[in-house]
Amino acid sequence: LCSTQVWRIKSWETREGGLCCCVRSGIHLEEKKERLVGLITSYTMASSLPIAETLPGNLYAGPNVYGPNLNNPYEVDYAVASLVSFFAAFVVSLLLVLDFRSLRKVLHGFASLFLAGVFCIILLGIYTRDWHSAEVETVTAYAPFDRREVHAKVGLHVGLAGINVTLKGVPEEQIGQIINYNEEFDWATPDRSSFFQGRIGFGRYSNLLNRAFRQGQFTGLPLPIQWVVEYFTFDGDGIRWGRYYRLAGYYTFLLMWLAMGFFILTLLFGVFRLKLGVLFLWCCGVTMISACVLYTILINAMSIPLAVPFVNESGESLLLQPSYGWSYFLVLITGIVVTTSSIVLGLIASAAEVARKISDGEIDTARGFERVIQRCVPLTLSNSL
């Protein structure tokens, strides 16, 4: 470089950790000398770092942060843990105060237990992330500019408001760090008031999941997580996995809260008007079944099913293809049980009401049988003739 004119230099790091430069347009040396020296120094420092400090999670190795994973992954879903703890505490409390010598009180306790279980299952269906899920064990690249691969389990868990992508090493400690990630990407706002689709791309008016994906690229998420999430950012030419999952989550979310409303009406009216309470309980069960049916219809409306390719240790192809998870089946089975129970309770309530009217003399059984005989006997004789 001469003293009066220099060249703008664009640098990047190669896969081997070296530094490459490309000469571009000419500018004055004095104006860019400090910036050029700082650029070369920063890349030299980054290339000299050990590999364990240049993998995902680092806070000092350039714009794409790669270093030790300092964040603790979520091993337990807080929504599931909270609801299970509430239900367990309710069951224990009920068993402590229940008088098993009285059949009436035992039936009341069983009804209370059943209603509490339905309440928890509705909330589990709303907040859990296993309506669609899949997991594969693969050998995959872990970070850019690094040829080494890791043996890990990649999981995809789809909920109504977003997805969770997990990455867990087998074993967890590989290539100098612990591989255990559980990353959340939502397409709904935190208060679940909006399931905004947004524009195509990653700008300020795009989908929340797209923006979270772009942020994950800058913060240095492992490559397998980026690959899985990237499939949900496509929205064009018949490839709209994120859009269909968002629509399915949105309408299922509404139906689940409608089921919660019917359940609350069941509690309010079931004490005073049993038949009305049973009717609302039936509506609750039918709404839960409808939520699962609608989710199935919208997911199957995709022209191309979602399938993320990976490879195993022997080089054979694997597909991370989600199927219905335990949240889906839990809501579906509960809806069927609630609907069937409401029908049985309705029949029992109707039979009890008829028996009460007969005992109170409101229904004259003798006259009723006489009317039946008068109608049936002539019809039988005419058919025989």
Secondary structure elements and pairings:
Layout: E1 6-13, E2 19-27, H1 29-48, H2 78-97, H3 103-127, E3 132-141, E4 149-158, E5 162-174, E6 177-186, H4 208-219, H5 223-230, H6 241-270, H7 274-300, E7 308-311, E8 317-320, E9 323-324, H8 326-359, H9 365-384
Antiparallel strand pairs: 1-2, 3-4, 3-9, 4-5, 5-6, 7-8
Helix pairs in contact: 2-3, 3-6, 3-8, 6-7, 7-8
What does this structure look like?
- This protein is α+β, with helices and mostly antiparallel strands.
- It has nine helices and nine strands.
- Helix content is 51%, strand content 18%.
- It has a five-stranded antiparallel beta sheet. A two-stranded antiparallel sheet has the order 1-2.
- Residues 1-27, 43-66 and 379-385 have low confidence and may be disordered.
Please outline what is shown here:
This protein has 385 residues and is of the alpha+beta class. The chain contains nine helices and nine strands. The longest helix is centred in the C-terminal third of the chain and has 34 residues, at 326-359.
Main features:
single chain; 385 residues; alpha+beta; 5-stranded antiparallel sheet; two-stranded antiparallel sheet; 9 strands; elongated
Largest sheet: 5 strands, antiparallel
Question: For the largest beta sheet, what order do the strands appear in spatially?
Answer: 6-5-4-3-9
Percent of residues in helices: 40-55%
Q: How big a fraction of the residues is strand?
A: 15-25%
* Computed structural class: alpha+beta
